[in-house]
Amino acid sequence: MKPGKVICVGQNYRAHRDEMGGTELTEPTLFGKFAQTVIGDGDPIVLPRDSTHVDAEAELAVVIGKAVRRISREKALDAVAGYVCANDVSARDIQYADSQWFRGKNFETFCPVGPEEPVPVKEIGDGSGLRVMQLLNGEVLQDGSTDDLIFDVPYLVAFASNALTLEPGDLILTGTPSGVGYAREPRISLEPGDVVEVRVEGIGSLRNPCVADA
């Protein structure tokens, strides 16, 4: 999967916003990843030598099916081809050291996505009520529900389309539930040899090993 755009949403689950010390939002916080961050199921996540803490973030991702601009919330699902699992991998120390999240989110391999074929809207609907999990080496770190989303899928598609034209193959990563390694005590960072699995109810799983930067 090689999307033209990867649009991500920051702190879009209430519980995750709270664990990260975020404030209440009146509109989504969007940021982007470049296409070269995207890898598939089974591909290795390369942990950059520049970072001391890398987090995995389990997410429901929306795959855009047709070009739209300024689509309404009521018609937003007409633009969605389906859904996949995604992992918004983040170099936290770099993300929070910079004034913007750009660098900490865009190391190559930092956006695993799968399965290759999205599950269609007719099977998932608007994406509500889905269990979203992250397992690290078989142990559950994140276990939430898309019912905790602050801004739901139709709202996010409409909101993003107000800023730019959404095109077939573009991805919208809808945010991550609570339980990320950075918010734990002690903190849990990805290490070489780890295996991260993202599971989204009704869609399947996405597994990626972690390797050191050669």
Q: Can you give a write-up of this model?
A:
There is one protein chain. The protein is an alpha+beta fold and 214 residues long. The chain contains 5 helices and 14 strands. The chain has a 7-stranded mixed β-sheet with strand order 2-1-12-6-7-9-3. The radius of gyration is 16 Å and the shape is globular. The two termini are 24 Å apart.
Brief characterization of the structure:
This protein is of the alpha+beta class and 214 residues long. It is 14% helix and 35% strand.
Topology, pairings included?
Blueprint: E1 6-10, H1 14-19, E2 29-33, E3 38-39, E4 45-47, E5 54-55, E6 58-64, E7 80-87, E8 90-91, H2 92-97, H3 102-105, E9 111-119, H4 121-124, E10 131-136, E11 139-145, H5 153-163, E12 171-173, E13 195-200, E14 204-212
Parallel strand pairs: 1-12, 3-9, 4-14
Antiparallel strand pairs: 1-2, 5-8, 6-7, 6-12, 7-9, 10-11, 10-13, 13-14
Features:
214 residues; five-stranded mixed β-sheet; 35% strand; alpha+beta; seven-stranded mixed β-sheet; 14 strands
Q: Give the SSE string.
A: EHEEEEEEEHHEHEEHEEE
Shape descriptor reads: globular
The spatial strand order of the largest sheet comes to 2-1-12-6-7-9-3
Helix content: 10-25%
Major beta sheet summary: 7 strands, mixed
* Number of beta-strand segments: 14
By helix and strand content, what is the structural category? Answer: alpha+beta
What gap, in angstroms, lies between the N and C termini?
Answer: 24 Å
Beta-strand level of the residues, as a percent range? 25-35%
Q: Tell me the Rg in angstroms.
A: 16 Å
Per DSSP, the total helix count is: 5
Low-confidence stretches: none
Q: What is the mean pLDDT?
A: 96
